[in-house]
Amino acid sequence: MPSLCRNCLTSFEAGTRCPACRSPRVTSHPELFDLTIAHMDCDAFYASVEKRDHPELADKPVIIGGGKRGVVSTACYIARIKGVRSAMPMFQALKLCPEAVVLPPRMSAYVEASRAVRALMDTLTPVIEPLSLDEAFMDLSGTARLHGHPPAVMLARLTKRMQDELGLTGSVGLSHNKFLAKVASDLDKPRGFSVIGRAETVEFLRHKPVRLIWGIGPAAQEQLEAAGIRSFNDLHRWERDDLAKRFGHMGERLWHLARGEDHRRVSPNEPVRSISNETTFFEDTSDPDVLDGHIWRLAEKVSSRAKARDKAGRVVTLKLKRANHKTLTRRVSLHQPTQMADRIYRTARRLFDDVGPQGPYRLIGVGLSDIVPATDADREGDLLDPDAEKRARAERAADKIRARFGDEAIVKGRSLR
Amino acid sequence: MKFSIERGALLKAVAQAQSVVERRNTIPILANVLIEAEGDTVQFRATDLDIEVVDRAPAKVERAGATTVSAVTLNEIVRKLPDGALVTLTENGQTGRLSIEAGRSNFSLATLPKEDFPVMASSEYAANFAAPAPVLRRLFDKSKFAISTEETRYYLNGVYMHVSDSDGRKVLRCVATDGHRLARIDADLPAGAEGMAGVIVPRKTVGELRKLLDDDDTQIAVSVSETKIRFATPAITLTSKVIDGTFPDYTRVIPAGNTRRLEVDAAEFARAVDRVATVSSERSRAVKLSIDEDRLVLSVNAPDSGAAEEELAVAYNDERLEIGFNAKYLLEIASQVERENAVFMFNTSGDPALVREGGDTSAVYVVMPMRV
């Protein structure tokens, strides 16, 4: 069976240890050198960057996240042994692992590390689809002749270089489509290298739960469970038409996924679908003034991201999570797309007023979707709101000041609340 | 209940009633039409709880009575019956079905009890007046295109009908706006309308009302209260709730200081706008108007799809001006202008433009420019 040593990158035919360096870090699979779609996921990315930059933390449990009321954003593997998971409330994490070192996120450091990883990936293939700072799909079809090695070898080299040159580790999933590659990368974390071949696909999925599918959240899971679908095996029993009838577009996709088929391409320029920001409060609040301040700050963040990408959106969404973790979402379609903080804020604020007093809330979020190029945005004034144009000019002027003197150079009083 | 009626009369009455019925209904009775036969008349009543329409048609009533059946199904059946057929509707008390017979066709429809049918509470109308159909037709036809569809600004989702002043004269005025364009249409104030409260007539009601206004000779009896409006002809009564909200102060939106005057042939202008807008692929097609001494150049520049330009001879003698508009808005406004030339009054390229028909101030439109 084709085998590869991830330590010294030697390829060989059989054995549990590398014949060259005697390392046990060997991956063997009949289709190892034939598969081309990969998913690379950095291991505990934020925590790993912190440990790399602060060597004294290397053998301590590290949690990245914010504040007393915040949630865990990333936990290192030492903290994970104690049961700490991402998205867990911080107080709970600290109960499980009181000795943990909690650090606030340093996004700029992570962005830089992510760029360095990306630069290494760029040497493998031009077809890279990043999903976030710490994970990406890669399509290495047709690169074997260029590199002189099959994709598996290049991927093993990638993780080795990440470790040697950047001090970061990652896990690779290699398969024949995106869905399975993503599933595979999660099978053997950290520093993993997992392969799902064509021959074993259906058998591999058979007893797996459907929540394995990326994009099947709790709500979709509930829907599926109501139809008696828990595992891929259950899914397999459904006729294609019945699935489509019951679940619409998702049903069609499920039918394919049940058979391990996923025809989505790895697309390097995945269009931006939405831009959103949210914040979790230190303490639950229903104070409209405090919430208004948050709506403004979030609107401003969303707006500045939209402006940075030269995008605008037609739909504004407001998300509120109540103290009992129930989420309320309200959205409205605008007459014309916008990228202006003022319009996003006013629209979100109106949605907030329409919700009525349902607080206290623990989280609030503002988003922009139905994304279009910025040239289509904010081109028409509003007869009934003649001051809008004046406010828009003020906002553009403030943007210019920030571009020149920094983000803090000019802020609205509203954002200080 | 048993009566016979000519197919044409039945179709007219049922068609009007069923158009009020909402297609998707959670309350089954609202999908039905209430049929009441008495004397020599049959009444068809349908409602969506906001609008109620009652249609009356002459019929040969053998047995008085009332029942309800699916409005859509009844309409479909009657529509498919041959023209000129005599239709007999009989309610069978035992089976609870309504049978419909015409020639050799026989239908039997499920009914729901007439007692369950929600009849709109009658109310006191503070103002009652009569207006000829063509007057109301003009007021609503020329303003309805500007009604907003934005749900968050629900108070703009209708036509604001109220009494106002124009050059020291009282007028009946209809205004609609969506914040991007505005239409303000005036008519002579009919006797009896003086004390009328200003009401916002919902979009759907405006649509239903249109069907009452086709005949030029009809006088429409209009009754208005703070919460409801009623339009009635001898055959049809349309009652609607009005939108519970405050229409914004539109008067400050209408520019008074615009001095640059452009006069164009409305039809020619509309055709040219339509032609150049073809190349634009955006949802809001922006057309640029470059105006110079007696010359107007319409242009569209869509970087992704192409460009277009057309020149028109116009009357203009002011400073050179470049201003952009949404093509759809220009077309809609230009199509309102029927008899004379369209007159545009501009200020700067950032200010709203005023449009009217020749010197006629009884129909005025305002349109917001667009960045081009």
Describe this structure in words.
The complex is a heterodimer of chains A (417) and B (372). Chain A is globular, with a radius of gyration of 24 Å. Helix content of chain A is 38%, strand content 22%. Chain A has 417 residues and is α+β, with helices and mostly antiparallel strands. Chain A has three domains: 31-199, Alpha-Beta Plaits (2-Layer Sandwich), CATH 3.30.70.270; 207-258, DNA polymerase, domain 1 (Orthogonal Bundle), CATH 1.10.150.20; 274-416, Dna Ligase, domain 1 (2-Layer Sandwich). In chain A, the strands form four sheets. Chain A has a five-stranded mixed sheet with strand order 8-9-4-10-11. In chain A, α4 (107-122) runs antiparallel to α6. Chain A is built from 15 helices and 15 strands. The mean pLDDT of chain A is 88. Chain B has 372 residues and is an alpha+beta fold. Chain B contains six helices and 25 strands. Chain B has helices at residues 7-20, 71-80, 133-141, 203-210, 266-277, 327-334; strands spanning 2-6, 32-38, 41-47, 51-58, 60-63, 65-70, 86-92, 97-102, 105-112, 127-132, 158-166, 169-177, 181-188, 199-202, 219-224, 228-232, 236-241, 260-264, 286-292, 295-302, 306-313, 321-326, 342-346, 353-357, 360-367. Chain B has a 13-stranded antiparallel sheet. In chain B, strands 14-11-12-13-25-24-23-18 form an eight-stranded antiparallel sheet. In chain B, β7 (86-92) and β8 (97-102) form a beta hairpin. The mean pLDDT of chain B is 92. Chain A binds chain B through residues 332, 335-336, 347, 350, 354, 376, 378-385, 389, and chain B through 150-152, 177-182, 248, 253, 282-284, 286, 324, 326, 350, 352, 366, 368-372.
